[in-house]
Amino acid sequence: MAGRKALSCDIKMNIFIFTFLFFFTILSLSSTEVKTGFMVMEEENFKILKDRKVGLIVNHTSINNKGEHLVDILLKNGINLVAIFSPEHGFKGNIEGGFLIENSTYNTIPLYSLYGKTKRPTQDMLNGIDTLIFDIQDVGARFYTYLVTMGYAMEEAAKYNIKFIVLDRPNPIGKIIEGPVLEKDIKSFTAYYEIPVRHGLTPCELAYFHKIKSNLNLDLICVKMKNYSHKLFYDETNIPWTNPSPNIRNLNAAILYPGIGCFEATNISVGRGTDSPFEFFGSPWLDNEKIVNYLKNQKLKGVKFSSCKKIPDNDLYKGEVVKGVCIKITDKNKVRAFNIFVHSIHFIYHHHKENLEIRKEEIAKMTGKREFLKMLEEGKKPQEIISKFKKEIKEYKKYLKEKNILLYP
Q: Number of H helices and number of E strands within the chain?
């Protein structure tokens, strides 16, 4: 009897210790400050840049946790900064998507736009540079263009024998992977990498993916983050939030973007010009009460849907009353934004076919599949469409593991 009591006490103690360690680990992860590649390089006194002639690909997100910009810090530390390059939305990140940007200067340093007359750095722009650095906060969706700018620059760096350094930053929407892998024969600035819509990679990891997949002869260096895990969402990193672009204004918008963003291949508003872009979708002719009831019945996890009306002050349906769906995230770990899009576009297609416009080439780029629209037209059920692409996600994950692309637990 005494032996049984002792055994029972041991089991209880083991359970207590396991529970304590589990919650201590979770608490440690949530309270530990993640250090970006920029901050790690700063801690190491920029020794990697000693005697280098540097070009920077940066924007307003290229800051440390004190809000200091990489350009200013490098100049302060005497680094030879030859030229600066900026992506879509510009150096200050305040220009709406799709607007071309002119070249300019920053404290007499040439500031070249990679979203203007060219989307690639030219030989003239790269003249005198032996090291290109990329440090921009991404969103985690394939059709978001910052990492495509990185890929283009990597290819040009390989062509001209220029070292390429990526200062890593978090994938703000974590490790979750969803949506189709891009078809090989679909290629554009918003459809460049053969990865799922929500790809789960950091900038460094995608740089390695691109180098391997494209067989680039490139001297690629990654400055890894410290204290980072793929399990973390951005609000768990203790890095201050900076809107990566004018319409991604919070983490919820970023989480929903890989799904709701696909509506931009249609005449459905995603809330541009309102107070909640990408947390809303709708149109003046949408029966929003009916679609909300439909979506609630689909038992889509991690979100709540409600009918609402908004009047955009610019972009699609400017000045009109847009009847739509407001999306509230209740559990970010369970949200599958692409699934929300599939269910929603299926409903709209079959209930508002006379009003809905889908641009064939654009929907192929956004979803990554030419067959997506065909499946919709053939009346395939949402779950059938979603299930169609599960196998290739497994293959994608297998490829990441085989090629040792993932840098963090």
A: 12, 12
